[in-house]
Amino acid sequence: MKRVFLHTGSNQGDRLRNLKLAASALKDTVGPILHFSRIFETAAWGVRDQPDFLNQALELETALDPIGLLNTVLEIELDMGRVRIQKWGQRLIDIDILYYGDIIWESDQLTLPHPHLHERNFVLAPLLDIAPDFVHPRLKKTTRELRSLCNDALPALPFQSE
To answer: For residues 43, 88, 153 and 126, what is the CA-based torsion angle, rounded to 10 degrees?
Structure first.
């Protein structure tokens, strides 16, 4: 079994419900969820003229290989109704593979670790909740260090549900 870290985000419909459905589907298809971060709310990154996102990091164990994990994640997104229209656009659900153990992997389909995770507060804030001392295999810095070095000006704030 491999230890993997995933990131989920949603800014359409019932965002909180979307994150819960994604976590349930991941548990059923990928493997047991070891840790959930708190849920964070952030303004949209990249394309700013859209609703705010809810984001969460998850640590799971899986027997899937990296491409099997990617295909499973994409299938969950599709089953939940994700439609890819615009890069960084609105989405019902987004599931990114942040880390697959300490593997460094590059292919046409997948790059591990996620190539931009260290540049985005909306990823680092939830990841800091569950893996503050995890060392990025390429950058050789902990999540805590990556967050302190991140230049992203968009705040990631703990979500306060109504």
So the answer is: 70
The token pair at 63 is 């027997």
Q: Please state the separation of Cα 116 from the chain's center in Å.
A: 11
**CATH at residue 89:** 3.30.70.560
Taking only the tens place, the pLDDT of each residue in 1-45 is: 999 999 999 999 999 999 999 999 999 999 999 999 999 999 987
This prediction's pTM: 0.94
In which domain, by residue range, is 81 found? 2-158
CA distances from 66 to 6, 37, 60, 121, 122 (A): 12, 22, 13, 24, 23
- Cα–Cα dist 108/72, whole Å: 17
Catalytic residue ranges: 82, 91, 94, 96
Number of domains in the chain: 1
Q: Phi/psi zone of residue 82: left (φ > 0), alpha (ψ -120 to 50 degrees), beta?
A: beta
- E strand spans, 11-161: 33-36, 40-42, 53-62, 94-100, 105-106, 111-112, 156-158
